[in-house]
Amino acid sequence: MTRDRDSGVRTEAAIAPREVACDESGSDGENLTSGNTDVFAHASVHLPLAAAAGHVQEIRDRIRSPAEEYKATHLLRDKHRSVLEWLLGASGPLYGHAHVLLVEKSFFVVERVVDLLLGDPAPALPLFRAGGDRFGDEQWRRFLAASNDLVRARSNGEPDAPVEAFFRTVDAMRRARPHDDLGEVLALLGRSRERALAHRARITRSPSVVPVLNPLVPAIVRTAAYWGGGGHPVSLVHDEQNVLTAPRIAWLTETTRIVGFRLVDSRRDARVQLADFLAGTARKIASDELNGRGDPVLTSLLRPYVGGDSLWGDERSGALLMKTLDRANAVITGFGW
User: Which Pfam families match (predicted)?
Assistant: First the structure.
């Protein structure tokens, strides 16, 4: 306990911030339906800098590659399988000191467009899980692409063009399955044109500080919430990212428990290097599981790290990748997940 010198009131001593290092893998900005990856992963590591440097050196000693900078791809090579299993395992350096948030990108798109147009993300899950089977792969891909174009900030043509394309796609889906049990959701989406136009007008006038369709900023918010449990303030050290502009960092520090935020070159901070290893391997393991080619051993090793507030729509792979999926905590006031 300490005593305030002016008021004389005894207060709890200030809690030292937890400094957490972060990196991501699979970022394609707001291009989530035709990018290079189908999974986004954000990893965070809470370790002393000296300890992290020792762990990075041990990884280098075990792999023995001449590469100046090691990346997750080194760990994912078959010949280094034992190193990856050690890194993720209960006897490895990350166990109990790291956390991963996973985002299934296509589900993120559906969740964002449903929340934007209906004011409630709940209908996104049944729509997503049934979409491909009910409407066919080609029609479902058109819906995902149209949803992505509607919500994203950038537009390659007229500002309202994504609105027209989206509602043409929704109308086609309603005509194809007029009496489907998803008909109510599609009908509600079909009546939301004014909200869609308002969204396009708003981002054309003034793009939001928080990008609606980029998972990085909300992932950082959830990361801070995880490490800030118990009332701890959090200081983040993050790999350099173009999306992390000064206004966005200011927004993060004003609206979360983040009390410090530094961008660094990952090569200059061993903790960020470890976060890079974890994010890259987690993204690959999760993507393999999502696409039916998962490795049971690696999926099991990753599971203790994966946060229940990850945003994942596929039921089968989600059950394997995370211990629990906390839908109740998957909403962040202000802009969704």
Answer: DUF3800 (PF12686)
